[in-house]
Amino acid sequence: MANYHYQVPENLVRSLKFFDGCDAATCEACCKVAADFLRTGINAKMYTPAANRLNTTVAKLRTATEALMLLLTDASKHQLSTDAVSTALSESSLERNLCVALSAVYADIGEHLVATLNSMVPRLLPEYSGVQWRIDVEFASRALFHFCKPSITLQLKVKTSDGCENQLLLSIDAAALKRLVAELERALATLRSREYRKLMNRV
């Protein structure tokens, strides 16, 4: 798991201020509920009795619990180590009891969440297998304003993750091809930019 510097999003910090003043047992119980919801799905019936015990509204408890789930999911999405999560929580302004409980829960289910998120990512995209191309040029037509009108046809072969091979037939004229090449060159230039590299380091 990664150890890069992570900051708890400010919107989650605001929602988790709900736990300010809560004792360790309450923070631990709510974190475990959030973890259970991530494992098995949300059980809305649990909110009402829990809200009554905490002397708060269902809406406030739901918002706080969803913030816990989002924080655990966000940390898993970035594949953070337990130490990285503990550091991020300690640097935030969250209640210490909550930080301890969250760190313990993440240590317990972090790897499970990472595996679950990875399983939700689409399988491998189709791979390039081969290509055939043909260029057709029309000469000396009275309907043409210019001397020639080239067009290009590509037969692209791709192989899916299950081994099946598909063929795609693509046709384009010279002007559109030139615009496409220009767009691809701009996209490649963007990929090489410093801003893009900084963005990818956070994804």
From TrEMBL:
Domain COMM intervals: 127-195
Top-rank taxon, per record: Eukaryota
Name of the protein described by the UniProt record: COMM domain-containing protein
Organism this protein belongs to: Plectus sambesii
